[in-house]
Every structure is written in C-alpha cells, then in structure tokens.
Amino acid sequence: MAFFVVLRRSGPQWDPTRPMEEQAGWDEHAAFMDALVVDGFVVLGGPLADEERVVLAVDAASEDEVRATLADDPWSGSRLVVESVDAWTIRLDGRAG
Fold it and tell me: N or C, which end of the chain is more exposed by having fewer CB within 10 Å?
C-alpha cells in the first residue's frame, strides 16, 4: 500500500453561492466519502480555506485505484473534479504506535 495526496477542485456544476452542505447531492456525496473513510481508503480529508479545493490523503495501491474509486463519487465530474494525484512518501509520522 502507498499513500497518495489528491487535490480535487470545484467542478462545473458547483454553485459558489451555496455552502458545501447545501450543494445538490450533498447527502449522497457525504455517504460515499464516509464509506471511504470506514474502508480505510481516505485517511484524512477536507476543504482548504478557499473552499474551492479539497485535499485527501489516500491509502491505495496505485494512482489508477485512486482515480477509479473517486470516479464513483456522485459528485465526480460535476461538483468535484480531480486536479492531481501524487504519490506521497511518508518520512515523518507523529501518530502514536
């Protein structure tokens, strides 16, 4: 397994006048993302300060797996698009263990 950092950006159907939780399809998107956390695929995730970009730390075997999994998100391509997927070498880990 490897870690990847994913940068997603607001897509063409994103309504900038509404907060994230009021976007169409929020409940379906949130359920999908919560399931990825439960499965251990998403380790950390959330919007950046501009709320137009989201960063995910993902535990996956390959970039292809990351892209294929996120393509199943109900918001994929509409309210969120993948801007980049980069392999991440962890050299410092402050988590207990």
Answer: C
